[in-house]
Specification:
The chain contains 5 helices and 5 strands. It has 121 residues and is of the alpha/beta class. It has one domain: 3-Layer(aba) Sandwich (Rossmann fold), CATH 3.40.50.2300.
């Protein structure tokens, strides 16, 4: 079975683009709500979560990280800056990538899941 990713994205166009870039490597489960995200993480035990912090708060990243400390969380934002990146990392995110940079998101997810697997080994 393919490794899975849960993608939390409000914009359907962005969700399709990111899911399309991740699908060659992962089974992608797209959701539009925090509640559904948490449920999917609990039920499916994904390799990572990709979450747009333009629509969801860093406190959501913090609580997700607190509940699932080994789960890599890659955040996206239309225009991430250094301050946002630092705040997201402090909240428990693995990385912050531009929403429209599918290659960067994929690289970050692959790197985060590799680090997570080697830490678990």
């Amino acid at each position: 079975m393919a490794q899975s990713i849960v993608l939390l994205e409000k914009d359907p166009r962005v969700a399709r683009s990111l899911a399309g870039g991740l699908r060659p490597h992962f089974s992608v489960d797209v959701t539009g709500s925090r509640e559904e995200l948490r449920d999917k993480v609990e039920r499916n035990n994904p390799e990572a979560v990709v979450l747009n912090i333009e629509y969801w708060r860093l406190t959501d990243v913090e609580s997700l990280h607190r509940e699932f400390p080994k789960l890599p969380i890659v955040c996206t934002h239309r225009i991430p800056d250094e301050e946002m990146w630092m705040a997201a990392l402090e909240a428990g995110a693995s990385d912050v990538c531009p929403t429209d940079d599918v290659g960067n998101v994929l690289t970050s997810v692959l790197r985060s899941t590799a680090v997570s697997r080697s830490a678990a080994a």
